[in-house]
Amino acid sequence: MLKEFQEFAMKGNVVDLAVGVIIGAAFGGIVTSLVGDIIMPIIGAITGGLDFSNYFTPLSKAVTASNLADAKKQGAVLAWGSFLTLTLNFFIIAFVLFMVIRLINQLKRRDEAAPPKPTREVELLTEIRDLLKKA
After folding, report:
1. Statement: residue 104 has pLDDT above 70
2. Which of 53, 31, 1, 39 is nearest to 99 (CA)?
3. Which of 3, 8, 15, 47 is most exposed by smallest CB count within 10 Å?
């Protein structure tokens, strides 16, 4: 059973998948930074200084804090601003992945559409065949 698992784990698809997951995690960090450090501050500036990541609804009367970190220490809160930020992250990641896959598919179609140019030997053989047909 151990040998069978080793054969499964070392197949190319599993290794490719592992590399994809690692790259995806790194890409997720980049998108999180893009949303948190660039997009949300711009939205905040446009909307008059709103910081969505700090928006929450207290679920108990013991929560009196004005920021999310302190409110979580005081009791249960519904952190809908964080959810909104993560949802925006998801849509940005999904859109970027869609664009990358679309580009890859276009490149594949372009490669499939153009038949490979015949080699010099094939061209010479074709010329000889045509000459023999005429004779």
Report:
1. yes
2. 31
3. 3
Q: Count the Cβ atoms, other than its own, within 10 Å of residue 31.
A: 18
51 and 36 in contact (C-beta within 8 Å)? Answer: no
Task: Report which of residues 135 and 90 the model is more confident about.
Answer: 90
User: Which 3 state secondary structure label does DSSP give 115?
Assistant: coil
Is-contact 32 53, C-beta < 8 A?
no
Q: Evaluate whether 40 touches 52 at the Cβ level (below 8 Å).
A: yes
The CA–CA distances, whole Å, from 80 to 47, 51, 57, 85, 92 equal 18, 12, 7, 9, 18
Cα–Cα distance between 76 and 36 in angstroms, integer? 24
State pTM to two decimals: 0.56
Residue 130 DSSP SS3: helix
Give pLDDT, residue 23: 87
Cβ–Cβ under 8 Å, residues 84 and 100? no
